[in-house]
From TrEMBL:
GO terms for biological process: fatty acid biosynthetic process. Residues 1-313 form the Ketosynthase family 3 (KS3) domain. Belongs to the thiolase-like superfamily. Beta-ketoacyl-ACP synthases family. Signal peptide: none annotated. This is Ketosynthase family 3 (KS3) domain-containing protein. The lineage of its organism: Eukaryota, Metazoa, Ecdysozoa, Arthropoda, Chelicerata. It comes from Medioppia subpectinata. The keyword Transferase applies.
Amino acid sequence: MSVNPQSLRGSNTGVYVGATTTKASDGYPDYIQADVDGSLDIAMHQTLFNSKYFYPNRISFANDFKGPSLLVDTACSSSLSAMTMAYNDLMLGNTDAAIVCGTHMVFEPFINEFQVEYGICSPRGVSAVLDESADGYVKSEAVCCLFLQRRRDARRVYAQVMSARVNVDGKKKMGMLYPSADAQEQLMIQSYRVAEIDPARLTYFEAHATGTKVGDLQEIKAIYNAYCDKRTEPLPLGAMKSNMGHSEASSGITSVVKVLIAYENECIPPNINFNKLKGELERYFPPLLAVTKKHPYNPGSPLPPPWGGRTIL
């Protein structure tokens, strides 16, 4: 049985939205003309009502939710940062439930053009994650959300959140945009230690894996160091962006949705555009396993929570 949104009206439900782009960025609004009817309304819509903070607040307003209503912008990690905030508020007792959203829409094609010129996006328009030919990511669009609540309140359980954490690389010699394998590894280790999970028992890793020349190498190195010490079984590696491209601010929640679908169907979908493993990654495969065909998967039962309030999806 699902939850009727009407039953949540007036409740302490939080709304957390990850987004980076605004829905209209046409520069400065027209000068307000006192003698032109509607001039003020137009200017207000071009400025105030196009602000991103209305993304979550409109949801809270329309549904009469009384919990936090937050817009989170941490670039490509926005929606998972929003999920971390939602999870922590639930664990602290600040909310009774949470709606976590990710949204990314491409309204300005010139951004694609200069990102291709800069070497961020693939000039071929091919998302070849982990492949030798990888030359950047492909932009995509997504709007998706998750409903989080405590286990004892749930009517239906798709998955169980054991840990959610956020960090940042700090100052790096290679510059702000260069990813840090060390920082990623540290965060992974902190996450499974807090949840008291044996990393060797992990049976599926859904990677960020964008298909950029530098990013994949740093992330795969971090995953290997964090999860593959003394590992005897292969660790399947999923890469959502090979299938649909990079939905940027929404990509984290999009990947979680993919994992839930894999749970439900007991099958990890294949990563596409994978022909030859990038040379720098060969040392990590195996035990890491690039999923290139339908991979049968039994996620098993959720781990028993230490108390009845563990957050679920």
